[in-house]
Amino acid sequence: MKKTIVPTLLASALVLSGCINTKSDVSEDAATDGVSNGDKPVIEILSMSSNETDVNIVRDQLTRNGFDVELNLQPDYGSFTAQKDAGNFDVAVSSWTTVTGNPDYAVRSLFKSDGANSIMADEEIDELIDLASTQAPEEHAATYQELEQLLVLDRAYIAPLYISYKTQGFNKDVLKEDSVRLSKSRALAWEPIDFVDESKRESDPFIVSQAISSLTSLDPIKGNDGSINQLNTNMYVRLVNLTDDDELTAEASLSHAFAIAEGNSDYYFVLRDDINFAAIEDDQAVDTGERVGADDVVFSLDRASNPDSVPDHRTYSLHEHIASTEVVTDIAALESAVTAADGTTVLEALEAELDTDISELVEEKTDADNSAGKYQVVKMTTTEPFPQVLNYLAHQSAGIVSKKQVESINTYDVESYDVNTDVAYGDQNTVTEGASYDNHLYASGPYILSKKNDYEATFLKNPAYMADTENAAKISNVTVRFIADPDSTLSALRNGEIHLYYGIPETKYDVVEEDPKLALQSMESNGVSYMLFNTKGREVAESEDLRKAVLYSINQDEFINYYQGNKIKAVSTVSPLVDTGNELIADPAKVEEFLANYQNSKE
Questions:
Q1: How far apart are CA 429 and CA 413, in angstroms?
Q2: How far is CA 454 from CA 212, 216, 433, in A?
Q3: Which of 129-133, 255-259, 476-480, 591-595 is least confident?
Q4: I want to staple 102 with a disulfide (CB 3.0 to 4.6 A). Which of 130, 173, 391, 472 is the partner?
């Protein structure tokens, strides 16, 4: 059955007049429309207290359409998740951001029967998700239209609220404006950020905020949420990256270049030889001397695509299409493979991006010497043609870990793993100050986490990450300050306590724009807020009519109005990525019809 996850944002400016009262102004006497007979159905809304404004708007809309509404507001994400897992809700206010830039990510984990974050099971939806994943963009739009129609308008598994902007505010007196990037999908990249006063690169930390202080895991495949996405993105290098506008690129990745072979099932990557793993020794980031190489890539992708590789694998659904990963040692294999793009050989496609042509392919990473023409090449094969696989390789869960280090830490038996006694690679307790501190991390990316407490986490520059190139980190120290409250975070930005606030609330844009020392960046994101229906043990799980009555009570114009035009309409999590032509329009007449059907079915 089906489930959901975390937050983010997007929108197009659309300003409406009027305002929405976020405290319910709907009287009991007035709330009778839409009920043909019997008692008014009760809908319990589960949400974090940080979403209280949205909850109150939904409550008023449902009350006006004939529902009694109960609120289950939880103070933080952990307690919200516990309530959701216990099934204590009819609808849960949720959100999802497609951080890989591809529509498969927008649906697979959330709505497929075996999805990591799914609490629903629907064979027809499963089939459509799988079909769309094998299609090129010019083909898959029709499939995603059919999927969205079934998921939302026909069966009402979710009720969309809006799409938001992705925004960040930063102190332009401290940070160079042109060094601060805002990307549509990928998390904030720290390595290009620089101080206005470059002399402070070694002495001063770059300070950024984050709401969640409890980190799911620093093992890339064991977390996919707002607590670690930005952190792991900056700690582990990947085979490919996304540009700020969601194009795939090898820039600042482990690959010099990549090529897709004819048939869209074989993918080739030629690796760089200038990245070593970093470790923490005596509170300093040190070069371990261990190069990041093909054996680490094979190990990382094998464990990512194996649901049983770790006891709490949370990203398997993103990588289940990887059938195998291997090191290529025969140049003839690259000469005989033809690219899907233009029919040139894979060798020609890879060499087009290299300063020195390939003269030899080596199996051992220590034998690679790119300047002498000695390279490592990795070939990944998918279970079926799957063009979107590259987007998943740009996700933090595809970060490259050290085979040697992870195997030395994960000595437990997966089947009998005990969280109370076994130490797993990436456990946040090992980097938390106190008796449990025993930092065992090996970072392949530009930064490594040194230590954390409930107040902040300290990251140090990897001294062996693309040293002496434009991709090397500019600032040596990064502090992630944990501040849960948005107003407190904004105050910290204005007071100079932090340098960058990732995710400025729409209602605070003007505060940032009017502060002469601050700059506001915003763009359309891939984030959708929606309500997820409980699919087990509640009347909404059994009654499609009841779900549709809730669905058609939602008036998205009222959200756009409240947020001063800084939201746009959504139908599903696919909305920011594919123009399906679908639309949800609030309709009290339909609400009345579906409620009548529901009431009649109970007689």
A1: 20
A2: 10, 14, 9
A3: 129-133
A4: 391
User: In this structure, are strands 266-271 and 255-260 parallel, antiparallel, or unpaired?
Assistant: antiparallel
Q: Where are the beta strands (DSSP E) in 212-314?
A: 241-242, 248-249, 255-260, 266-271, 276-281, 284-291
> What is the pLDDT at residue 118?
86
User: Residues near 589 by Cβ (< 8 Å), separated by ≥ 6?
Assistant: none
Give the tokens for residue 366: 């220590």
Nearest to 60 by CA among 51, 69, 52: 69
Architecture of domain 42-165+525-602: 3-Layer(aba) Sandwich (3.40)
Compute the half-sphere exposure of residue 81: CA atoms within 13 Å on the CB side of its CA: 11
Q: How many helices, marked H, and strands, marked E, lie in the chain?
A: 18, 21
Q: What is the pLDDT of residue 78?
A: 84
For the chain, which residues make up each domain, given as ranges?
42-165+525-602, 175-461
The residue that leads in pLDDT, 33 or 194, is 194
Confidence at residue 38, expressed as pLDDT on a 0 to 100 scale: 52
Nearest Cα neighbor of 44 from 533, 570, 601 is: 533
Strand partners, 206: 478
- Are the beta carbons of 380 and 325 closer than 8 angstroms? yes
42-165+525-602 matches 175-461 in fold: no
3-state secondary structure of 403: helix
| 5 pLDDT more than 50 | no
Residues 367-400 pLDDT 10s: 999 999 999 999 999 999 988 999 999 999 999 9
Separation CA 91–CA 7 (nearest Å): 16
DSSP 311: T
- The answer to whether 206 and 175 are in contact (CB under 8 A) is yes
Measured between alpha carbons, how far is 396 from 240 in angstroms, rounded to an integer? 11
Q: What is the dihedral of CA 149, 133, 528, 65, to 10 degrees?
A: 20
SS (H, E, C) 169-207: EEECCCECHHHCCCCCCCCCCCCCCCECCHHHCCCCEEE
**Three-class SS of residue 388?**
coil
Task: Give the pTM.
Answer: 0.83
Q: Mind listing the pLDDT tens digit for each residue in 454-469? A: 999 999 999 999 999 9
pLDDT tens, 8-45? Answer: 333 333 223 233 333 444 443 433 333 434 589 999 99
Spatial distance between the Cα atoms of 279 and 287, rounded to a whole number of angstroms: 7
Identify the CATH number of the domain defined by range 175-461.
3.90.76.10
Q: How confident is the model at residue 125 (pLDDT cuts 50, 70, 90)?
A: very high
Return d(Cα 526, Cα 166) in angstroms, integer: 8
Strand-pairing partners, residue 160, are 530
Q: Are strands 91-97 and 518-533 parallel, antiparallel or unpaired?
A: antiparallel
Three-class secondary structure of residue 239 per DSSP: coil
Pull the structure tokens for residue 118: 């799914």
Q: Which residues pair with 46 in a beta bridge?
A: 72, 92
In sequence order, what DSSP letters do the residues of 472-518 get, joined into one string?
A: S-S-SEEEEEE---HHHHHHHHHTTS-SEEES--GGGHHHHHT-TTE
Crossing angle for the helix pair 588-602 and 544-551, to the nearest 10 degrees: 160
pLDDT band at residue 491 using 50, 70 and 90 as cut-offs:
very high
